[in-house]
C-alpha cells in the first residue's frame, strides 16, 4: 500500500475540524501528555507546538505514546477498514489526476460496484464525493497559503473545469474561492 502524503498544516486543519474521514490515515501525538488520537477526536485540542503526526500506529507507540481513552485509535472498527484506507490512500495520492470509479477500484483490486457500496457504508460518502472533499481541502489550503490564482489552483487540485471547481468549492465551503481567500488571509 502506498503511503499517504499530507503536510503538517493539512493534518493540523483536519484535527481542528475533527474530520473523521481521515481516521486511520494519520495519528496526532501530543508531546506534553504522551497520548495519541485519531484526527476526529473530540478531546480538547493541544497547542500546535506540542503536536507531532505519525502515519503508522506502531511507529507512534514505539515513540512512547499511549492511545487516547476517548477516541480509542488502536481499535479497528470494521472488517472493511483496510479497504477504505487503501481507497482513501489512492484518492489522497492521486487527487489531482482525472480518476473514474473504475480506475480507483482497479487500484484497490475490487469491482467498482462493490467499492462504491462498501465505501459508502463505511464513510457515508461515495468515492467521488470523498475525492471532491479532498480536492476542496487542498484548494482551501492553497488559497490560504499561496498567491496562486483560482484558475491555477483549480487545475492543480485536479478539477477539469473552473465552473466545476467553483460549484463544488461553494457546495462544500458555502462561499466562493475568492470569498474564502479574503476571509482566511
From TrEMBL:
Q: Name one GO biological process term.
A: methylation
* Cofactor names: Zn(2+)
Q: Where is the HTH araC/xylS-type domain?
A: 85-183
What domain of life? Bacteria
What span is annotated as the signal peptide, if there is one? none
Sorted UniProt keywords: Activator, DNA-binding, Methyltransferase, Transcription, Transcription regulation, Transferase
Instruction: Give a GO molecular function annotation for the protein.
Output: methyltransferase activity
UniProt protein name:
AraC family transcriptional regulator
From which organism does this entry originate? Virgibacillus oceani
Amino acid at each position: 500500500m502506498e503511503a499517504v502524503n499530507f503536510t503538517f498544516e493539512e493534518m493540523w486543519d483536519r484535527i481542528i475540524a475533527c474530520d473523521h474521514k481521515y481516521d486511520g490515515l494519520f495519528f496526532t501525538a501530543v508531546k506534553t501528555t504522551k497520548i495519541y488520537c485519531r484526527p476526529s477526536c473530540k478531546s480538547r485540542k493541544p497547542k500546535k507546538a506540542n503536536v507531532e503526526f505519525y502515519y503508522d500506529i506502531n511507529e507512534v507507540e514505539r515513540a512512547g505514546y499511549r492511545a487516547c481513552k476517548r477516541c480509542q485509535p488502536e481499535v479497528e472498527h470494521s472488517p472493511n477498514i483496510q479497504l477504505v484506507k487503501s481507497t482513501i490512500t489512492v484518492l489522497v495520492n492521486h487527487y489531482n489526476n482525472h480518476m473514474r470509479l473504475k480506475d480507483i477500484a482497479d487500484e484497490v483490486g475490487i469491482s467498482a460496484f462493490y467499492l462504491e457500496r462498501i465505501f459508502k457504508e463505511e464513510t457515508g460518502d461515495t468515492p467521488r464525493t470523498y475525492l471532491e472533499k479532498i480536492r476542496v481541502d487542498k484548494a482551501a489550503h492553497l488559497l490560504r497559503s499561496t498567491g496562486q490564482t483560482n484558475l491555477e489552483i483549480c487545475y492543480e487540485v485536479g478539477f477539469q473545469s473552473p465552473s466545476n471547481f467553483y460549484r463544488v468549492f461553494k457546495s462544500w465551503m458555502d462561499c466562493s474561492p475568492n470569498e474564502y481567500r479574503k476571509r482566511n488571509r
